[in-house]
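Chapter summary example.
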Amino acid sequence: MSTKRFSPKSNLLLYHAGAAVAVIGWGVSFISTKVLLDNGLHPIEIYIYRFAIAYLAMLLIAHKKIFSNSWRHELTFMLGGLFGGSIYFISENVALEYTLVSNVSLITSLSPLLTVLLIGFIYKTDRVGKETIFGSCLAFLGVGLVIFNSSFSLSINPLGDLLSLLAALCWAIYSIIIKKLNPLYSALFITRKTFFYGVVTAIPFLLIEPSITPPSVLLEPKLIANLLFLALFCSMFAYLMWAVINAKIGAVKAANYMYFQPVVTLVFSFLILGEKISFVGYTGCAMILLGVWLADFLQKRKLRTSNK
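The structure predicted for these 308 residues follows.
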């Protein structure tokens, strides 16, 4: 009796599909976070509730191994939780209070380009060619069109935009940290440790909150539904998927999928909030899709040519 196995090409397509699903969740998370903010929850509270729930859920399915193999690795996990968890999300959530959502989406979308630059600077063997940079730049121009949509007037608040830039840089650093840990630990273990240290490093930030929202607020069905979506899908599932994808297709290719985040936000804003998509928005979506595909296609063609 023969067992049907997936070909390497089929597996690769599954990993790319997983990256798309994860980014869809993150794109919709902007809307869920905005709902929670508009209903009285503070940015740091949202983050702590979200990742505490995600961590407890992960602990139920992955609790045999608690500590990493060494204190050095434990410190690396703590840095992952700090950059990919607390600082990233708190910066992003606070930025939503000081500047436009479109500004935050656009600036945090710089993370793929920052990831490419940092990886190229740190790892000589992973330096990307002009083809990947060209595709990334084309995609980023598409991000600009999607975010500005039908209006090109940008309302700038320096504090909010600087926080968004900090978030983008933190995500790039997190991608590099995950790259170091992937050969040593499972994606499940990496994700759970990231959540734990993300929550622990976020607790001191509560000192800057003006007040603490009563937990009873979370009993409202709309709020608990959005919080569970953020915790179980956008955090637990998407982070786990992202750890696997970084290991299988590489941090640079995975980072390019982050360009889809503002596209998803645009589409779901239309479906849920009734915001219209203009011709400029559709053009931006097309440029993002083309840029991500072009970067991957041209890089593969260059590798095939060099191997001949």
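To summarize the output: The longest helix spans residues 8-38.
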